[in-house]
Amino acid sequence: MKVRLIAVGNRMPDWVERGVDEYRKRLPRDFALEIVEIAPGARGKNADVARAVTLEGQRMRERLRGDELTVALEVGGKAWSTERLAREADDWRHSGRDVALLVGGPDGLEPGLSAAADQRWSLSALTLPHPMVRLILAEQLYRAWTLLVGHPYHR
Ligand SMILES: C[S@@+](CC[C@H](N)C(=O)[O-])C[C@H]1O[C@@H](n2cnc3c(N)ncnc32)[C@H](O)[C@@H]1O
């Protein structure tokens, strides 16, 4: 299984890149995490926010592969414990499909993508900045994998 984190935003601070890479390199090939960055829509003084969100949605759709299971990351999604995430990840693996985790931009995920997603997952009731979302996702995927294989890290 491949997990692709398709996230609006680029130019992450170095500490985020290093943190995400640390967990990515710990994950085995059958749980590989790939990061796909989506350029944010322009937000200037007279910016049309709805247009920027629509553009981000289009750019994300262009990167989606038709057969992937999609998971929208949203504050209002379902809260999963790490144990629940491990069960979900095990189901993803057994479905034989790759997975796309969708992270929106400053104004959230394009509503059509959220509505069409197979699952909606909330990391917390707090609104997190997108660099933190990437880091938490990478760490939690690693933690879920360690739980599935009985590696002591997950305790
Ligand atoms: C800075 S947040 C956007 C905040 C925006 N006001 C909203 O309501 O979605 C950027 C993205 O990070 C993700 N995100 C932020 N906090 C999250 C959380 N607690 N759980 C899941 N995803 C989160 C979502 O994908 C969101 O679209």
From TrEMBL:
Which leading EC class covers this enzyme?
transferase
Q: Which reaction does it catalyse?
A: pseudouridine(1915) in 23S rRNA + S-adenosyl-L-methionine = N(3)-methylpseudouridine(1915) in 23S rRNA + S-adenosyl-L-homocysteine + H(+)
Query: Signal sequence: where?
Result: none
* EC number assigned by the record: 2.1.1.177
Top-level taxon of the source organism: Bacteria
Compartments (UniProt record):
Cytoplasm
The protein's matches in Pfam families, at most eight in alphabetical order, are given as: SPOUT_MTase
**The keyword S-adenosyl-L-methionine belongs to this UniProt entry's keyword annotation:** yes
InterPro entries in the cross-refs: Alpha/beta_knot_MTases, RlmH-like, tRNA_m1G_MTases_N
Annotated residues for binding of S-adenosyl-L-methionine:
L73, G104, L123, S124, A125, L126, T127, L128
Keywords, A to Z, come to: Cytoplasm, Methyltransferase, rRNA processing, S-adenosyl-L-methionine, Transferase
Under PANTHER family, the record lists:
METHYLTRANSFERASE, RIBOSOMAL RNA LARGE SUBUNIT METHYLTRANSFERASE H
Q: How does it assemble?
A: Homodimer.
- Similarity field: Belongs to the RNA methyltransferase RlmH family.
Briefly, what is this protein's role?
Specifically methylates the pseudouridine at position 1915 (m3Psi1915) in 23S rRNA.
Protein name per UniProt: Ribosomal RNA large subunit methyltransferase H
Q: Which organism is it from?
A: Modicisalibacter tunisiensis
